[in-house]
Amino acid sequence: MAQERAVQTRALVLAAAAEEFAAHGYDGTKLLNVVERTSMTKGALYGHFSSKEELAATLIEEAGDELIARAERRAEGTTELLALRETMLDLTRHLRRDALARSALRLAVEAPQLDRHAHGLVGRISLSLARAVARAHAESRVMGRHPPDTVARLLISLFFEIPHPAPRDDADAARRFDDLWEAVSGPRDGGSDTV
What we know:
This protein is an all-alpha fold. The chain has nine helices and no strands. The protein is elongated.
């Protein structure tokens, strides 16, 4: 009985924190506001999470795992391109409806140092989408001239409004611009359209 109550309390804290992080971001969220949302004491919150950092890291990990599972899910009995489309629609729907997912994605962008995975949440979603794009390329050859990782970054940027990930330096930013420009406009008749 006590264990069941602890699980419910933890879930309540995570849900309240997700609402705060989704609305205000990592820097704008105060633990006092999370406590007020739950109508619990600070002690109850700290009994489950020792800090704001631990709370945010837990949200990134747990809600992020659900996002990754959705990104890797494939629709059966359809083309790879339609499966990729359904994956993007499912991810978008989930982010609209689930504060835990929205907060995990926002936290992963705003506080990437709290993400416990080497590739980070956005990177892991991008890898899953790049594999789906590669399968669609292999099946249809319609988009085959665009690198799958470039198309995945473009999908993430357009659908989730995330500049994934921030360029490391000017050379990386220039390469990404050239890749994305070619992906959306195609090369000029005389060859590459890069700067």
